[in-house]
Amino acid sequence: MQERASEAVAAMRPTANWAGNVAYRAARLHRPTSIAELQDVVARSERVKVLGSRHCFDDIADTTGDLVVLDGLASDVEIDAAPDGDGGTAWIPAGMTYSHLVPGLAARGYGLHNLASLPHITVAGATATGTHGSGNRNGSLSTSVVGLDVVRSDGATTTLTPEDPDFAGAVVHLGALGVVTRIGLRFRPAFQVRNNVYVGLTWDRLVTDFQAVTDAAYSVSVFTDWHEVTQVWVKSRTDELDVAPEEFFGARAATVPTHMLKNTPVENLTEQLGVPGEWHERLPHFRSGFTPSNGNELQTEYFVPRRYVQEVCDALRSLGPRIAPLLQVSELRTVAADDLWLSPAYGADVLALHFTWLPDEAAVRALLPRIEAALRPYGARPHWGKLFTTDADELQRVYPKMRDFRALVRRSDPRSAFRNDFLDRTVAAYG
Ligand SMILES: Cc1cc2nc3c(=O)[nH]c(=O)nc-3n(C[C@H](O)[C@H](O)[C@H](O)COP(=O)(O)OP(=O)(O)OC[C@H]3O[C@@H](n4cnc5c(N)ncnc54)[C@H](O)[C@@H]3O)c2cc1C
Questions:
Q1: How far is ligand 1, taken at its centre, from the CA of residue 131, in Å?
Q2: Atom 37 (ligand 1): residue with closest C-alpha?
Q3: Distances (CA, A) of 143 to 127, 267, 293
Q4: Residue nearest atom 36 of ligand 1, based on CA coordinates
Q5: Which domains does the chain have, with CATH numbers?
Q6: How far apart are the CA of 182 and the centre of ligand 1, in A?
Q7: 297: which residues sit within 8 A by CB, 6+ positions away?
Q8: Strand ordering across the sheet containing 66-69
Q9: CA 358 from chain center: how many Å?
Q10: What's the 70 CA to ligand 1 centre distance in angstroms?
Q11: Pocket lining for ligand 1, CB < 6 angstroms
Q12: How far is the CA of 53 from the centre of ligand 1 (A)?
């Protein structure tokens, strides 16, 4: 489905998130056209939050005070290419979406190491929440960040770089530290990818050969209803694999474009059937300019160390009959370990367990504690931008750097201007 006109209207005067399950309570909306104007808004506001493209499913971006959108700021991208042609840094306006950023990068022969399932999200919103794609050796999108220009709650500006001792705490910041106005992103030479979809992989084969299955290509996504493995999307770099095999761990190649959601037209999907294309036209599942997924849904995701694949799949399969009535589809991806304090992949190569739900929030919220209890022995960390009920005590248990992050919040925002209900429930930094 071509993206709705109402999407554009909502972007002019946002009143709710993309999924429509969070109505923003802000008293005022600001669209500054200069950094000075933004500094003034922030310094004067008692409570302030920035809106990205509103694709989170929880109240992480909500406030009762002032909401700020950054699409009125200058939109120039500054490219700092390495002399050897091996990559470089792109300084981009924080409110820019990947949809707007990536064609220009690709046209100059540059690439990003990975993308999420959709390019519609802002770079700032995505990297603030540890948003990820898939790939055993691919870190989350936040791992590309090499610099942040920030407006603090007193209105002063600062630039953070990896030399700053707080940098690893500041990249996945959940909107708690300030307004990010520019982001430095590391890029590399462009590359080509093909997506081959396979059907008929058995659970036994998936779990027994999980490492080999997910190592077989640059980015692998496994879809399931927890009864059976429904599809495997195998996205390989053309410079790493000449020809995609007809058979994949006993599964057979799909012969027509295939949606991961039942009864959903394939027009919003990026190209499949092994047709090579630019990295940014294959790594996302969904095409820019079209409604991603099916638009009528909620989402949840948990991350566990990859070594627990057998245990967590058994646990979730045994909850299958409870999950099934609410589930549209689940997706298993992998994310490489990083050192970003609040990244779901902090310190461990993780398996990401994603759920696309029917849009029944009360029923989903009633089910989540069961799923969380089943995954608790494996130290599950929830996706910051999706629905979860994990409380601050448990989050402190599974995030070894949570205490340091709280201290960083208090140092960065001593008057608690960026505080909101979400941060009170999760980070609990404000005493
Ligand atoms: C259909 C669909 C598919 C998705 N697929 C994936 C996926 O493949 N992988 C994945 O990991 N996630 C996925 N997500 C989740 C989503 O991409 C993330 O939650 C992401 O954070 C959304 O970015 P956004 O720009 O919409 O941010 P928002 O939801 O607008 O904001 C997120 C947070 O960032 C803060 N923020 C935004 N901009 C700034 C700024 N400039 N300065 C300071 N704080 C800021 C906000 O205040 C808020 O706290 C998906 C979501 C949808 C709807």
A1: 7
A2: 125
A3: 8, 31, 25
A4: 125
A5: 5-69 (3.30.43.10), 73-390 (3.30.465.10)
A6: 16
A7: 19, 328, 356, 357, 358, 359
A8: 28-30, 66-69, 48-51
A9: 20
A10: 14
A11: 18, 49-56, 60-61, 70, 94, 116-118, 121-122, 124-126, 128-129, 131-132, 174-175, 179-180, 292-293, 383, 385
A12: 7
Span from the CA of 129 to the centroid of ligand 1 (angstroms): 6
- Other Cβ atoms closer than 10 A to 46: 13
Average confidence (pLDDT) per 10 residues, the chain, 431 residues: 42 81 95 97 98 98 96 92 88 95 96 97 98 98 98 98 97 98 97 97 96 97 97 96 87 95 92 96 94 93 98 97 98 98 98 98 98 98 98 98 98 98 96 74
Phi-psi domain of 309 (left: phi exceeds 0; alpha: psi -120 through 50; beta: other): alpha
Separation of CA 17 and ligand 1 centre (Å): 10
b/e sequence 80-113, b meaning 16+ C-beta within 10 Å: eeeeeeeebbbbbbbbbbbbbbbeebbeeebbbb
Angle between helices 309-318 and 361-375 (to 10 degrees): 140
Spatial neighbors of 243 by CB under 8 A, at least 6 apart, are none
Q: Is 334 strand, coil or helix?
A: strand
Pocket residue to mutate for ligand 1, from 25, 41, 42, 50, most atoms within 8 A of Cβ:
50
Instruction: Let me know: does 142 contact 377? Beta carbons within 8 Å.
Output: no
- Strand runs labelled E in 97-243: 110-111, 145-151, 157-160, 179-189, 192-199, 219-224, 229-237
At 21, list the tokens: 């399950």
Q: What is the pTM of this model?
A: 0.96
Q: What are phi and psi of 41, to 5 degrees?
A: -60, -45
Residue that is written with structure tokens 């390495």 in the block: 82
**DSSP character at residue 3:** P
